[in-house]
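Late entry, adenosine-5'-triphosphate complex.
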Amino acid sequence: MNMEKVIIVRYCEIHLKGKNRGYFEKVFMTNLERSLAGIRHEIRKPSGRYIVENFDEDRVEEIIDRLKKVFGTHTLSLGYKVGADMNEIYSAVKLLIPDSGSFKVEANRADKSFPLNSMQINAEIGGRILAQNPKLCVDVHDPNTTICIDIRENGTALVFGDRIKAAGGMPVGTAGKGLLLLSGGIDSPVAGYMIAKRGMVIEGLHFHSYPYTNMQAREKVEELAKILSTYTGGMNLNIVSVTHIQETIHKYCPAEMMVTLLRRFMMRIAERICIQTGAQCIITGESLGQVASQTIEGMTSSNAVIQGMPVLRPLVGFDKTEIIERSRAIGTFETSIQPYEDCCTVFLPKHPLIRPKLESVQKAEEKLNIEELVQEALNSLESVQF
Ligand code: ATP
Ligand code: MG
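Prediction complete; structure with ligand written out below:
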């Protein structure tokens, strides 16, 4: 008997109704394919789900790990492809059932010439399981394990076991493109993850103030972008120097305004890069009240320099502990907590302005040649592709 491992990938169909469905499915298929680049496999889409087969069985764990991270994947199951024969089907079932707990068999017969109908397959396989496993019982409403059996039209059957929960969300590429302001901290990678999960392509932007900040800070951000890109299927990271901007602010503006003014420069530069890269919004990791600059007045002051696009702050209502939990779950936490210098800590005043008044901020900026500073920063732009 020839028993071959297969994986079924299920997506959440609710989102995919209507005329956009074909488009969503196409993007999702491309993303699944991309996630398995470098591993032999085939993906088919019979109806309402995706089947991965003909893969390198030694790498099944790795394949599942990669598929789990593709946004749009809700659950997946490992299973076996066997001949459409009750004995062969049962041998696969034996590999998938646990020792104890409750189970349910869910058969589906695409090949109507198969001698048993779905109900009969359920009863027959269920009966064999019960006869051989005294610690298992049937529960059709809320089973611990569901065994799915698909009798296909080509003389084969697919047998699947437990559902593994995957990332969920929408396929990246179905909700436009955003520019993530990526620092080396805990918050911004989580913010990027959340927006990418809703289907948005993420482009990154990191500001450094080398030589005040060191190369490790940059490597750390690159590492974070690399981790994020395992979910998003790739990410372009833009890196811009704000050294001269900070020196200039430090020289000409009130010390307590450093962070507020730097934030406004970051936003101006970000909007320019959005226009250059086709990004439609700016994404930050700000959370209301978390630090002095993340007050509503601080946000008003930074929003005021943006001409024509929204700033998405997906963490605005989150506690730090909730953000940390998410950052652990997505695998960025360990990298984020490595010590580093962020440009925001350079020339950091003892008492930053907590509730900057827009008029006084604008007044303080009058001494600066804003356009020249922005242009100069843009000239320092480098990009790295992950
Ligand atoms: P994070 O953990 O994301 O660094 P934080 O709690 O340290 O956030 P701030 O330093 O106030 O908060 O930064 C707020 C947001 O501004 C960050 O989440 C990020 O989106 C953006 N930001 C801050 N510093 C940088 C930087 N050097 N490069 C790019 N974006 C930055
Ligand atoms: Mg930070």
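Residues 183, 185, 342, 344 surround magnesium ion (ligand 2) (CB under 6 Å). Will revisit in the morning.
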